[in-house]
Amino acid sequence: MHFAEAVRLAFQTIRAQKLKSVFSAVGVFIGVAFLIGAWSIVNGMNVYMTEKFAGTLIGVNTFHLRRRPNFTPNVSDSTWRAWRRRPRISFEDADAVSNGITIPVITAWWSEDRGDVEYGSKKAKQVSLQGATERYFDIRNIRIEQGRAFTPQEARGGATVLVMGHDLADKLFEGRDPLGKSVRIHGIPYRVIGVAERRGNLLGISLDKFVIAPAVSPIQREVNPPGVIDALMVKASSEVEMREAMGQVEGIMRSRRHLRPQQDDNFVLETSEGVLDFWGKINRILLAVGPGLVLIALVVGGIVIMNIMLMAVAERTREIGIRKSLGARRRDILRQFLAESATLAAIGAVLGVATGIGLSVALNAATPLPASVSPVSIVLGVLLGAGVGIVAGVYPASRAARLDPIVALRHE
Amino acid sequence: MPGLQEFRTGDTPQPDIVILTHKLARDYDMGGEVVRALRGVSLQIRKNEYVAVMGPSGSGKSTLMNLVGCLDTPSAGEYWLNGLKVSDLSDDELARIRNKEIGFVFQTFNLLPRATSLHNVELPLIYAGVAAPDRRRRAARALERVGLSDRMAHKPNELSGGQRQRVAIARALVNEPSILLADEPTGNLDSATSAELMGVFADLHRQGQTIVMVTHEHDIAAHAARVVTLRDGLIATDRRQAA
Ligand SMILES: Nc1ncnc2c1ncn2[C@@H]1O[C@H](COP(=O)(O)OP(=O)(O)O)[C@@H](O)[C@H]1O
Ligand SMILES: [Mg+2]
Questions:
Q1: How close is the Cα of A169 to the center of ligand 1, in Å?
Q2: Does residue A233 contact residue A191 with C-beta atoms inside 8 Å?
Q3: Do the interacting molecules here have an ipTM over 0.85?
Q4: Which are the contacts of A114, defined by CB distance < 8 A and separation ≥ 6?
Q5: Yes or no, beta carbons of B127 and A327 under 8 Å apart
Q6: What is the pTM of this model?
Q7: Interatomic CA distance for residues B8 and B126, integer angstroms
Q8: pLDDT digits (tens, 9 = 90+) for A236-293
Q9: Contact across the interface for A328 and B112, Cβ inside 8 Å
Q10: Would you state the CATH architecture of domain B49-74+102-240?
Q11: Is residue B142 within 6 Å of ligand 1 at its C-beta?
């Protein structure tokens, strides 16, 4: 019997026993759907993280001097407590570092908290309130669509002016011109001098709901205790120069804080690598757990198929006897049952692929997760599924093939 | 048998002998107790003979048919089919012989219940590796030969017992086997249908088909030209009769 004949026969048999077939393919279906779905999330997140997230949050060739890491995977309580005991980055630290670096870099102060912004009777809640110095716009690549950024003079003098994000402008002004208008934060009025270009969102969080005011303006009371900042941002013009600058900053900070050589830094220099590191940890967990879950589903699926096939062999003993009496060889019977289990599993796998893709599309539409299906996972899914079917079919099929024709014919 | 040379171990059969068994034996091991179903059956059947095998229940008729049909292998003795010693062939070689040389008709029809008449008749051709269009044509012709050209798309449960047995006969003949074996083919049929079926067998015999048929009914056996009677796994009588 030819292979095509065996597959045709398999389809006939499967069609004749739809319910049982659906049931037996469920394990493979789940395994493959999960494989495709989970893989698409990891895949999408990878692209997102490396291309957008890290760049948006930290910036290219940029590092942040901070008291403690901002992007951290789960850290222990004791580490956390140790971080909280560290001294903050003071204005003096920031000035000393900015003046001490000999590499050509640009630096900016930066602090952030959340709070309300009011305009007339309108109020926007949970706005990102940021205090910064003038180079911040360059470092974070924030382009001004309307108006202007604040000047070094305004920054130094702590003028009550601010630049706002696009979403916030839309919400407070509803299409009217925000420039020159006065908004209030904690009762203190600020003049709107610029609106930033729209940046979109990151994992579903708007990147356009912010205000940026000079770091030493009254906004500092909203974001930090007096005299300290969240971070000093340092942008170099290349990776190499950034590394060099980081070395200098570390030296400056250690000497300012009188750290002895055996003492650890009590501050961090965070780069986009740090963020990616955090993602890498999540990724590794997924990569460790994911294949295990897929494997379990496929093994269970294989066992189900094997049992269904054993039942099928028992039920169709007489059919096997008839076929053998008409000249079917062992390998014909073997092929028939292998084709059947492989086809069953392949159907499960194909449905699993379809569902996995659907899942990924749905995730993309309904959640901020940037899922994207990987072609490799589709190939792997189908191959794994059919492979499971063949492996699971070997034992039942060889049992069928070994049946004695007379015994089989006499079977009720 | 008149005209037949006695066969000794080491001989080869005469050219026109289709079936030759020599001291053929088959023991069944029933958990320590050995059932000797055949105890040395020596039988020669010529081309185009029509032989009825009779004997009481348990005398070894089916065991003999299964051996002759290459569904089973003997415990001792020789079996030659068309000059080829098949008693010591491998499983796959036996399958090939079942496919090409033997047409088997069973008491219980043994049709695939979910398949149409046409597909049932096609089965031996599938295992012979015949391509689909040719297969269908030949299966249709075989069904025509047994008068069932209008029942090709029917499944076994849509057919009467006699029609089912005709499908089984068409299936047995589709590969043009050298022998047609029938183990109590009328066992599940009423007497009118049985008579009809005997008509089909007679036609086939007239067209040159070699037939060996087991029955325990004398009026069925009366259709054959030769009657072999088994008793306790041995041949009791072997005689020709006017058909
Ligand atoms: N598979 C078997 N296992 C054990 N004994 C068997 C088997 N097949 C047949 N026999 C025994 O062999 C003897 C001959 O059986 P069988 O050839 O079927 O007789 P018949 O067809 O003439 O009625 C009987 O005693 C039967 O019980
Ligand atoms: Mg019998």
A1: 96
A2: no
A3: yes
A4: A126, A127, A128, A129
A5: yes
A6: 0.70
A7: 39
A8: 988 899 999 999 999 999 999 999 999 999 999 988 776 777 777 777 887 788 888 8
A9: no
A10: 3-Layer(aba) Sandwich (3.40)
A11: no
